[in-house]
Design goal:
Blueprint lengths: L7 E4 L4 H17 L3 E7 L5 H6 L3 H23 L8 E7 L2 H8 L6 E5 L5 H7 L1 H9 L4 E4 L3 H9 L15
Parallel strand pairs: 1-2, 1-4, 2-3, 4-5
Helix pairs in contact: 1-3, 4-6
């Protein structure tokens, strides 16, 4: 039973961070009784400008099917399939992720859920743009979900290399 007109909108890309956001969004939807809308935004390989220069309907159809499959795979990886105790609608849109999510979460009662963080300065500069865009432009609350512990452990792991790890024994 939903309270008011609240919806939970989750940005999904298939990454480990977005799987954490999807899990948090399902939890929020369960707690509030609100419907969940999972959104995967995609663009043609090379971007819209490259596609406009050399359009190919067959490739476009393959990319759209791949995006649909990525969304289904995200639910499989996060839950082993679609949760049955939450009202879920899935949308695959051809648009930039930040603006698409902000537009879909246009009501003040909505809750927008996105993954964030856990990157170095270069990763934040290149990949954190969707989260920053949503926080800056959304007209509803935005829940940013930190990366899973596994990613944080992996980031520490690369700092444990020792010079002897790179020694290659000479043959014969």
């Amino acid at each position: 039973m939903a309270v008011g007109n609240r919806r939970v909108i989750a940005g999904v890309s298939g990454s480990v961070r977005s799987l954490a956001a999807l899990r948090a969004a399902v939890t929020e939807a369960r707690i509030s009784g609100a419907p969940l809308q999972a959104v995967l935004a995609w663009a043609p390989v090379g971007g819209e400008l490259a596609y406009a220069r050399a359009p190919c309907a067959a490739l476009l159809e393959q990319w759209e099917q791949a995006a649909c499959q990525r969304l289904l795979d995200a639910f499989d990886k996060a839950f082993g399939g679609m949760p049955r105790d939450v009202e879920i609608s899935a949308a695959v849109v051809r648009a930039a992720p930040g603006p698409a999510l902000v537009e879909l979460a246009g009501r003040p009662d909505d809750l927008l859920v996105v993954g964030y963080g856990g990157r170095g300065w270069l990763g934040r500069a290149t990949h954190g743009a969707v989260t920053r865009y949503c926080i800056a432009h959304a007209r509803c609350p935005v829940l940013t979900v930190p990366p899973p512990d596994l990613i944080q452990q992996m980031r520490r792991w690369r700092h444990q290399w020792r010079p002897e790890d790179f020694i290659v024994p000479l043959a014969g």
